[in-house]
Amino acid sequence: MRILLSIPSLLPGGAERQFAELAAGLCARGHEVLAVALDQGGPLEEALGGARLVVLGKASRLGNLRVAWRLAGQLRGFRPQVHYAFLATACVLGGLLRPFFPSTRLVMGLRATEVDHAAYAYGRAGRLLRGLESRLSHLADGIIANSQAGRRDCLARGFPKARTIVVPNGIDTDRCRPDRALGLRQAWGVGPDEVLLGLVARLDPMKDHATFLRAAALLAARRPDLRFVCVGGGPDGYASTLRAQAEALGLAGRLVWTGTRTDMPAVYNALDLLCLASAYGEGFPNVLGEAMSCGIPCVTTCVGDAALVVGACGETAPPGDAGALAEAALRQLERLGREGEGLRRACRQHILDSFSVERMVADTEALLVRLAREARP
Predict the structure, then answer these.
(1) Rounded Cα gap, residues 186 and 170, in angstroms
(2) Who has the most CB within 10 Å: 193, 201, 272, 339?
(3) Could you tell me the mean pLDDT of each successive run of 10 residues in the chain, 377 residues long?
(4) Is it true that 2-170+356-373 and 180-354 share their CATH fold?
């Protein structure tokens, strides 16, 4: 089967990682896959396996018409049986082009839940894009949400219920595996007797670093052995604001800011506990699954399907509540002290059993094959 996968870019990110792993997995199953990046490529090009990559090179929002024309050219030339679009921009372009390619089935891929657009400079454009995606969803032959929370969100927005299914993200458990020798603790100045709690997320309002920092200050007052690390990059102005908040909270000597990193298995293996503090917008948080696959216990806010991802191995807290997040982290650290390697093994086994990349590829393939064989009503 010929499958065209489209996404805005292949820069590091959760949706982009899933896109690359799906492309590689479908190729390994014998399908011909064309991966199309609307804006730009990126480091995840290396994870595409046997898929062929085309970068359309959108320079700005004003270039959407040119990119739509170029995407139409790829659809004409490649003649895919299925076009699977990832993220809102690709879904909207796929919906606009759908009437011109009636023999190609369109699948929209939804990777997040409700976003607070007021927190972003491009908020108005984001709301418009989200509205267009909802209106065009009735032209899609299938809709894949990566979480139960994502499905509930899109149904509330008017997506067709009968065509909307959930395929949870898949975690590459070969890439993300326990190996404490990979750790970066020494480089970050963390001593062998210290406990390292990390937030791994881009610097973005939805990730709510502010609540994490307040929770870290509460934890620091109760656990002298605790150190903290924030892994991820973002806009300089926002980064400066967060650093100033950390200093005001007395965390300057206990907290490391690493910026963007691509060696994620090494990052996870350096931690004793991972924290996700997101306030909104999450669907299936990959960072939880990847950390647990490395045997790292997690504490998370109850956003998207985070509670389902961590299962009985994790601790949860309400979004925006620094005190509850700190208490959840303490409970998890106490459990880790009691159970040790038993808890680490349980974390990895939970991901192996429930969220393997092989299962994600197989479930997606089954839907795409069915759609390609069905006549559209």
Answers:
(1) 31
(2) 201
(3) 96 91 97 96 93 86 81 97 96 96 96 64 73 95 95 94 96 94 86 95 96 98 97 96 97 95 94 97 95 98 96 97 98 97 98 96 96 73
(4) yes
Q: By three-state DSSP, how is residue 99 classified? A: helix
CATH number of the 2-170+356-373 domain? 3.40.50.2000
In whole angstroms, what is the distance from residue 166 CA to residue 152 CA?
10
One-letter-per-residue 3-state SS of 194-228: CEEEEEECCCCHHHCHHHHHHHHHHHHHHCCCEEE
Alpha helices in 157-304 (DSSP H): 209-222, 236-248, 264-270, 286-293
Topology of domain 180-354, CATH: Rossmann fold (3.40.50)
Which residues, other chains included, contact 322 with Cβ-Cβ below 8 Å and sequence gap of 6+? 211, 212, 214, 215, 218
In angstroms, rounded to a whole number, what is the distance separating the alpha carbons of residues 56 and 335? 49
Residue 375 is given by DSSP the state P
Torsion 120-276-44-89 (CA) sign: negative
Q: Report the pLDDT value the prediction gives residue 112, as an integer from 0 to 100.
A: 75
* Dist. CA 144–CA 167, nearest whole Å: 6
HSE-CB of 138 using CA atoms within 13 angstroms: 5
pLDDT of residue 174: 95
Distance CA 110, CA 133 (A): 10
State how far the alpha carbon of 240 is from the alpha carbons of 204, 230, 235, 243, 347, in Å. Answer: 12, 13, 9, 5, 34
Cα–Cα distance measured from residue 354 to residue 298, given in angstroms and rounded to the nearest whole number:
16
The pair of structure tokens assigned to 196 is: 């390292």
CA–CA distance, 211 with 277 (Å, rounded to integer): 7
Residue-level pLDDT at 57: 86
pLDDT tens per residue, range 136-182: 999 999 999 999 999 999 999 999 999 999 999 999 999 999 998 77
Domain ranges of the chain: 2-170+356-373, 180-354
**C-alpha of 67 from chain center:** 25
> 267 burial class (0-12, 13-18, 19+ CB within 10 angstroms)?
buried
